[in-house]
Amino acid sequence: MTQQHASGLPPSLILSSVDFNRLEALLDSPAQRHQPAAQALMEELNRAEVLPPEQVPDSVVTMHSFVDCVDELTGERHGLTLVYPHESDVDQGRVSVLAPVGSALLGLSLGQTIDWNAPGGRHLRLRVTEIRRPD
């Protein structure tokens, strides 16, 4: 499912070649290939602008980035670290890129907004307010 920007268009998406290649290999594995979340992420990868890692702006969400966002509908703040599935730990705020919010945030830029439906059908409009990349 392609996430929609508040304007109704999908937000632009930038990925590093390292993240793109690792994610493509993950999605090509037999365990993931037919999963709906993997198929949705592949759609995101297919529309991404792929850049060498050193050319990806610091204001773009990459793998292992800490992302702070605010739900513009409720004012609720969310902080998470975007990780690969084997690294996920909800209690530690480590969200898999295969989770709906993970694939939605990957490649977004500071200030961009996405609309998506959380589990249980609750509608969220998340705006990226801070990105901290790993050292």
TrEMBL record:
> Which GO-annotated molecular functions does the record name?
DNA binding; kinase activity; RNA polymerase binding
> What name has this protein been given in UniProt?
Regulator of nucleoside diphosphate kinase
Q: Where is the Regulator of nucleoside diphosphate kinase N-terminal domain?
A: 11-50
User: Single Gene Ontology BP term?
Assistant: DNA-templated transcription elongation
Q: Which residues form the Transcription elongation factor GreA/GreB C-terminal domain?
A: 57-132
Pfam family example for this protein?
Answer: GreA_GreB
User: What are the alphabetically sorted keywords of the record?
Assistant: Kinase, Transferase
